[in-house]
Amino acid sequence: QVQLVETGGGLVQAGDSLRLSCAASGRTVTLDVMAWFRKAPGKEREFVAAINWSSTNSKYADSVKDRFTISRDNIENMCFLEMNDLKADDTAVYYCAAEKDGMLVTFSHVYDYWGQGTQVTVAS
Hints:
51% strand; 4-stranded antiparallel sheet; 7-stranded mixed sheet; mainly beta; single chain
C-alpha cells in the first residue's frame, strides 16, 4: 500500500506564493505519475498538475499554467507544487495523487492513491 500526506496549505493574500508538499510512504516503487488535484466548495474536483517519474514530462491545467510548478524528488519520495501569484479562485482543498502505470492524464479516476488534502485559502 501507499500513503500520501500533503502539507503546506494555509491562508494567504492574493498575489502571494505557497509551496505544497506531498510525502509518499509504503510501496513507493510503484508510483509513476504524481499529480495534484483540487476541490473548491460547490465545485467538482479538478486537475491541477501532473509529472512523470523522470520529471521529463508534466502537464498543467490552463488556469494554473505559468503560475504553478510541479516537481518531485524520487530519493525522498516527495512531490511539490510551487504556487505563485495566487488568486481567490485558487482557494480549494488540494490533493496529492499517484498513479502506477505511467499515465500522465487529467482524469482523477485513473489515479490509484490519494492523500487527505490540505486547505489553501487565498484572501482577495
